[in-house]
Protein: Glycosyltransferase
Amino acid sequence: MEATDICTLSTLSIGLCGILFLIQLYYIFGVYNRIHCARRNTSSAPIQYPPVSVIIVTKDSGKALEENLPAILEQDYPEFEVIVINDKSAGEDDDILKRLSLRYQNLYQSFIPESARYVSRKKLGIAMGIRASRYEWLVFTEPYCRPTSKNWLKSMAGHFDDKTDIVLGYSNYLPQSGWFARKITTIEFFHSLRFLGSALAGRPYMGIGRNLAYRKSLYERHKGFSDHLQLQRGEDDLFINAVARKENTQVATEAESIVRMPVPPFKRIWYEEQMNHLVTGHYYKGVSRLMNAIETGTCILFQLTTLCALALSIFQQWWTGVAIAFLLWLIRFACLMIVFRNTAKDLQENLCCIFPFFDMARPFWSIGMKIRYLFRTKTDFMRR
Structure:
């Protein structure tokens, strides 16, 4: 290859680096930094707390219920009820719920009939809980989730106002040693930066049922989960994707609004959850899928293009090009690490040591999950 050709390639690669750099900065400061900015701008206006119904669907979660339900039932909140729907558990869920109901007068339980067929039992359980609820505001979580504060409900309700129909909250795993635990905690953290940041930017596209609130009237107006009854899951993210708008959605970013859960005992449980997210993601309306794909694609292209620009510039001994390529990489990396660090501190995560590796490995992990998904059959995710 002639010197002029190498010069042209190195110049083009530097130019492409610049374009990808600007796109990445848009995501870093326009989306991922939104949680940190929202934390700094939190108002201290007086709040009135409406009564709420907390809804949980359980299946063979006896130990988790015994450990976590008291933290929900003992919330410092004026008026609330907790409704637990039992999905024909083979364990001791029923005995534990009966024992707890003797201690807590605001705990109510019901069960999904064994005769229920041809419908997602999780969706049916939530629908039963909503029908049994007495209050307009509904808060959803899981039996293995535990609020980090007695003011969890107050923190969520602090965002309830006349214009709001939906409040999204942050959830992640409990701190645990080991590579797998740190990896999935960081992935969950980044996923939250993405969907909560997008909501704060005025483009809500999903929610997670571990920490989520919305109005009962919103559910009824939308006819529940009728849009996606064919899927086993989607009772949280697909429902929010269909009804969330810039005007009716808020995000709880306070430390007291955080919910945590234990790291899955088996890796396959976590991978199965990721498969379900990939499936429901294909049904998202709007530009969210495209926006997320652009971010992931430009991230990996920026890394590869920077390496290419550095190699070509060094080969040509064009030191100005080397300096430009390295500076672009360094500025992006520094900006991303600052945003990650600030937001991790806000959300009480200790993940700073893994951020540099995560930034490089994340696009390849995403590709790996999509390859796993390709080997699954459609019937794995449909209702039975």
About this structure: The two ends are 60 Å apart (CA to CA). The chain has a mean pLDDT of 87.
